[in-house]
Amino acid sequence: MRIFSGIRPTGGLHIGNYLGAIKQWISLQESNECVFCIVDLHAITTPYDPKELQKNILDTTAVYLAAGINPEKSVIFVQSQVKEHAELAWLLGTITPMGELSRMTQFKDKSKQHKDYINAGLFTYPVLMASDILLYKGQAVPVGKDQEQHVELTRTIAKKFNQKFGKVFDEPETILPKTGAKIMSLTDPKRKMSKSDEPKSCISLFDSPEDITKKIMSAETDSGKDVIYNVTKKPGISNLLTIYSLLTDRPVKEIEKDFVGKGYGDFKKSLATVVVNYLEPFRRKQKELQTRDVYVKDILAKGASRARTIAETTMAEVRSKMGLA
């Protein structure tokens, strides 16, 4: 199966990004044809610093590599280096109903968050995401829960294109993690973890051990002191238990038993140790790759070349079907 997924290079990728999407990619690349993109065209739909964008792209590449994405097995590239993404997005935009875009919850959320930065690109973001997936004829898309609606729209667009012009695209399936599809904020466990919130609300993959420990120890918990998973009554401790479970590959029930008769303090100290140790390879890889720019850029250049070959073939077919060639 051909798999497509991507992450915005907006700096400070956090543990929610990793557990919601990237962690799935590792096993998928073993038995599938995987295309993993750094979606910089998406990144510029919300406020960003142009001077930081290239650094953020290299940092995101470091996350991919540190997580275990193998550039020999998977295609890793930067979205803007393959011009067909933008071309297909325009073509698909001509068959995408405005009503479908108007109901996208992420546009509503981002518009509230960045009231001075509401733009057409943010509104048509899902069409570009559809073009990302369909350009490579992706059959499945591993994403976090917040992107599920966009993949559903991609299926709608693919179906509409095929009906109108003839079969070109598969209708991709969504692959969600069994648990951890949405990691919540450390300061407000009823909201999704986001790097655009205050720094102490999320754990960056490159945070220092001291910062990780401080954030976890100050994370909002709930009344009482029992370490028990109950999203309704104990959203804070439930979120922390989810992180603990996903990073240790242990069932939540088993972890709960470890802390019977102990309080939140003991649990948080243990979780801090787990997170610090788990993220050590990410910090190490980032430092290593910061001194190996040529190596990283070579991986991205080779990936773009491989991606371009697939993209050009798809676009030749699309143009022909639409009467543009």
SSE order and pairing:
Layout: E1 2-7, H1 15-31, E2 33-38, H2 40-43, H3 50-67, E3 75-78, H4 84-93, H5 98-102, H6 105-113, H7 120-123, H8 125-135, E4 140-142, H9 148-165, E5 173-175, H10 209-217, H11 235-248, H12 252-258, H13 264-290, H14 293-322
Parallel strand pairs: 1-2, 2-3, 4-5
Helix pairs in contact: 3-13, 4-8, 8-9, 10-13, 11-13
CATH domain class name of the largest domain: Alpha Beta
Q: Which percent band covers the strand fraction?
A: 5-15%
CATH superfamily label of the largest domain: HUPs
Structural class: mainly alpha
The number of E-state strands comes to 5
- What radius of gyration results from the CA coordinates? 20 Å
* Number of helical regions: 14
Task: Give a verbal description of the structure.
The chain is built from 14 helices and 5 strands. With 325 residues, it is mainly alpha-helical. The chain has 2 domains: 210 residues, 3-Layer(aba) Sandwich (Rossmann fold); 82 residues, Tyrosyl-Transfer RNA Synthetase (Orthogonal Bundle), CATH 1.10.240. A 3-stranded parallel sheet has the order 1-2-3. A two-stranded parallel ribbon has the order 4-5. Helix 9 links the parallel strand 4 and strand 5. Helix 8 packs across helix 9. The protein is globular and about 70 Å long. It starts with a strand and ends with a helix. The model has no long low-confidence stretch (mean pLDDT 92).
